[in-house]
Amino acid sequence: MKRFQTLLTRTFLFFCIILSVIIFQGCTSSSNPSLAAKRYKMFYDTGIRDLEKGRLEEAIGNFSDVPESSEYYQKAQNQIEYVNQRLDEKITIEYGTIYKCTKCGKVLKKFIKQKNCKRRERANFNINEERASLCPDCERSEKQAEFERKKLERQAAIDQMKRYEQGIGPEEVAVTRINISKWESGYTAGENCQFVAMGINVLNTGDSTTHANPNYFTLSTPDGYTVNPDTDTTYGLSRHFDAIDLSPNSYTYGWLIFHIPIKDYYILHYKTYDSSVDKKIIPQNI
Questions:
Q1: Backbone angles phi, psi at 222, to 5 degrees
Q2: Are residues 161 and 248 in the same domain?
Q3: Same domain, 175 and 75
Q4: What is the rounded CA–CA span in Å between residue 280 and residue 153?
Q5: Is 0.70 surpassed by the pTM of this model?
Q6: Which of 16, 160, 174, 211 has the fewest Cβ atoms within 10 Å of its own Cβ atom?
Q7: pLDDT tens, position by position, 70-106
Q8: Could you tell me the CATH number of the domain that includes residue 188?
């Protein structure tokens, strides 16, 4: 009798386990399709949002995740076909280099090329690596600052030119007047040349008499091309620089004209047997 009860109990437990499994499977099979449908709808909706924002490649990826078993499958396939058509469209793109202002840090794109290509090929023409440059505002500011700096430097050089300058020996030289022209005393300057007329002072600061002479002067360009005073035009002037003996603490003044290639500046040389003065000359009418 006891054996029969044990057998009956085991049989009952077996049927309970089978019934539990059947019930669990039924519940699972009834809930999974709902979760899967929501997930597939999420793929479809995300693809639509990507499409609206122009993220075409991402949209195709999301639409492709919708399986055939989903009610959104056909819609997703239609969207994939549409996106592929858009990716195959011919578009004109601009590409080039992005610049970052080295002064203010502003970032600006400076596109330098255009190309017709399929939309899907656009990624092949990305902006190049970042480069350093100046933004337009800073560039204008830099140019203005450079202009003002050069203007001050030029004025300082002109002021220095007017002052007496001493080298080796007792003589000091100052250039107080300058006249730049293409025509002088009936003569025309050659191609790319000009006449540089200078009013020159020579002062004897020594204790003995010295001799000043126009032949002691030469004018040279920055690259070393050197000329003597132009006799044809110089001696046509009423007050040209003439040879003279200078007693101590006396000076002489006169004009010399040089025919020389056009440059931004020159070097005036005054050389005697025992004196030497080099003076920077700015070719500006003063």
A1: -60, -25
A2: yes
A3: no
A4: 12
A5: no
A6: 16
A7: 999 999 999 999 988 888 877 776 667 777 888 888 8
A8: 2.60.40.1240
